[in-house]
């Protein structure tokens, strides 16, 4: 019986010594990593940190490790700076990623503006002002194929009494968009940390709505460079009218018609 107790005590002592050795090994890992080199303490992300997180919240999601100084890029944070508390993280941090001072700014970078239209590579987008009737009672939509008619000039020529003439200016043109672009929506403020959470949780915000008046009395067409000049000239000195093209119709440019030739 006594012999069995001695064996158990010996096993317990061996376990204690082994545990102490493991703890000592772990604590010395960082120092061994820089053995023979100059080491520096740096801040890294303890977990993934999303963009727009405030500096004061980032601080609670970091830890310090010892690394060789030669591997540390310029601008790496070696300790937390309280001046970063009110700044915003402008790019997400992955777990174990170094914290760089340049990642914290007063505002988030502006996103590239989104466009409502895609202009064909060999075309130009030209916008003209039209009321509802010349837009086929307002039923013209993006993607439609239209014929653009022009009545020039708007008033008779007083020198030779020539009446205005209407003719097909552009036999076929593609409608890119109808109406003007709405005013840009201001960037929403980043969501704060949710109290009691271990990681940032963005608060839901209402869907932003465009501001300003939306004017549908404009039409943007895709035209080639030569027709762009003609369309702009006609929009200044002539009256324009759109006609929706049927599936099998073909419009042939010609001399057009004036009031003398109507009947």
TrEMBL record:
Residues 118-244 form the Flp pilus assembly protein RcpC/CpaB domain. Residues 183-213 are annotated as: Disordered. InterPro entries: RcpC_dom (IPR031571). This is Flp pilus assembly protein RcpC/CpaB domain-containing protein. It comes from Actinoplanes couchii.
């Amino acid at each position: 019986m006594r012999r069995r107790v001695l064996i158990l005590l010996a096993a317990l002592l061996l376990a204690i010594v082994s545990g102490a050795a493991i703890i000592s090994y772990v604590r010395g890992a960082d120092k061994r990593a820089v053995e023979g080199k100059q080491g520096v303490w740096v801040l890294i992300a303890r977990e993934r940190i999303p963009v727009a997180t405030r500096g004061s919240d980032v601080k609670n999601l970091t830890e310090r490790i010892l690394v060789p100084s030669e591997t540390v890029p310029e601008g790496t944070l070696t300790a937390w700076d309280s001046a970063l508390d009110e700044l915003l993280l402008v790019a997400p941090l992955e777990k174990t990623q170094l914290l760089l001072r340049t990642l914290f700014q007063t505002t988030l970078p502006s996103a590239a503006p989104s466009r409502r239209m895609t202009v064909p590579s060999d075309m130009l987008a030209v916008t003209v002002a039209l009321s509802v009737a010349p837009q086929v009672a307002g039923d013209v939509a993006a993607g439609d194929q239209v014929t653009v008619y022009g009545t020039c000039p708007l008033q008779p020529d007083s020198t030779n009494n020539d009446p205005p003439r209407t003719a097909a200016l552009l036999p076929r043109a593609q409608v890119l968009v109808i109406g003007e672009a709405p005013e840009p929506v201001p960037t929403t403020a980043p969501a704060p940390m949710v109290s009691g959470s271990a990681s940032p949780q963005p608060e839901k915000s209402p869907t932003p709505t465009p501001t300003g008046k939306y004017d549908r009395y404009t039409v943007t067409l895709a035209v080639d460079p030569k027709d762009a000049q003609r369309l702009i000239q006609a929009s200044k000195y002539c009256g324009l009218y759109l006609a929706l093209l049927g599936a099998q119709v073909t419009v042939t440019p010609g001399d057009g018609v004036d009031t003398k030739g109507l009947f």
